[in-house]
Q: What sequence folds into this?
């Protein structure tokens, strides 16, 4: 970790994880807490093509990337998503962050086959923000609970074990009951060993209107980084590819200064944690990674 004035800089220790903003900012939903305000009409970032992803995969081998993540928007709106994942499984493990509402059985069948033939695992994270229509739908849209749960069961039927991700829109003291309600609901729906990951809200994009903006005081300082384990921060070991270039992390793609270069090699510089969203990473750590989550419940 280095610093300039009072803003700490986190160096990239090694490019372990490479993310792809594969659907740009296009999503079939318009969730009220989406920190990049994705929607059916948001074209600020475009889709990545198979050819673009393939080129980055080849580039990533030289950099020693270990794992790949796909996000959007909704990745499965990208018509090349299935071939992109099949190709990625030749390079390493892949995780897709999806709202689970647009799967076709033939896609999952092909992906299940590709995973069985691969040395590497394919993981799905499905976003559901409540354990019932009445807790989920006010945030994600009318009917989205039923549609996402249908997607979860489709995944289970094709042999996948999706991680359910829920954004914390409840108070800390409600958390144990909420987690239990999620696990009970998932088991009852036919997912016997559910995994649930709780994420903090990020006060950017649509979430600024739903709850609040960051306060000026919510900043990471050099002093705060003393004795802090910076490996907890995604920017310490990851970068993300968009149709504009390579950015520091999936949270800040819309922020000024988030593009670090046009090649992976150029994107290896450290990053000054000048943004208020960095404060959320500091508080909760490991927001974007799979295994060491803020709260991962497995029963
Ligand atoms: S939170 Fe996810 S599902 Fe909801 S609008 Fe944003 S990208 Fe789409
Ligand atoms: S938002 Fe989080 S991952 Fe992104 S640069 Fe700030 S601390 Fe790093």
A:
């Amino acid at each position: 970790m280095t610093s300039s004035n009072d803003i700490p800089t986190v160096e990239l220790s090694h490019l372990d994880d490479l993310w792809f903003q594969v659907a740009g900012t296009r999503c079939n939903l318009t969730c009220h807490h989406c920190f990049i305000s994705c929607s059916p009409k948001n074209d600020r970032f475009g889709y990545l093509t198979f050819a673009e992803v393939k080129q980055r995969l080849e580039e990533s081998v030289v950099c020693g990337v270990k794992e790949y993540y796909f996000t959007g928007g909704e990745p499965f709106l990208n018509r090349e998503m299935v071939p992109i994942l099949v190709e990625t499984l030749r390079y390493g493990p892949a995780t897709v962050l999806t709202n689970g509402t647009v799967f076709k059985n033939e896609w999952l069948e092909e992906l299940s086959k590709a995973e069985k033939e691969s040395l590497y695992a394919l993981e799905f994270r499905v976003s559901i923000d409540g354990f019932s229509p009445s807790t989920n739908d006010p945030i994600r849209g009318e009917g989205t609970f039923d549609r996402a749960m249908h997607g979860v069961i489709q995944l289970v039927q094709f042999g996948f074990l999706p991680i359910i991700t829920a954004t914390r829109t409840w108070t800390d003291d409600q958390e144990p009951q909420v987690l239990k309600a999620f696990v009970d609901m998932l088991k009852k729906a036919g997912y016997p060993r559910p995994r649930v990951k709780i994420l903090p809200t990020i006060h950017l994009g649509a979430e600024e209107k739903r709850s609040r903006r960051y306060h000026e005081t919510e900043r990471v300082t050099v002093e705060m980084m003393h004795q802090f384990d910076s490996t907890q921060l995604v920017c310490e070991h990851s970068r993300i590819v968009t149709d504009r270039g390579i950015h520091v992390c999936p949270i800040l793609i819309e922020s000024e200064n988030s593009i670090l270069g046009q090649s992976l090699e150029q994107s290896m510089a450290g990053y000054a944690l000048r943004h208020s969203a960095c404060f959320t990473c500091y508080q909760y750590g490991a927001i974007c990674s799979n295994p060491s989550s803020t709260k991962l419940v497995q029963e």
